[in-house]
Amino acid sequence: MVYIASWQEYQEAAENLYIKSPNKTRYCVKWRSSEGKLVLKITDDTTCIKFKTYSSIFLNRFEALNLSLMQKMQNKRPTPIVHTPGVPDISKDTDQTRSSSPFIVQPAGPATGGVKKKKPKKKK
Fold it and tell me: Which residue blocks in 54-89 are alpha helix, DSSP H?
């Protein structure tokens, strides 16, 4: 087991390890709230790579690594949004259709109903 100190090195090594043997690779995340420690481990039974941090700065990077690994595990690539000239933008049209909808849109908030308030006890 090797702890890698640099996040960039860990991310590259983790992605390369998964690409090398996708059927055998396991990814484990451990969070110890009492210590504020995050430990990431990826292994394919021959190579084990770990990363340990106490900093909350790595949470965004950790999320990006998870997204990247999940896309590889699902065999998907991120699709870029391409706007072609001359083609109308659909997102602008959806706002108009929503405003002409016969349904009344209520603002999000606590749900009403389903739970009754208890009546206070009568005083003697």
Answer: 58-73
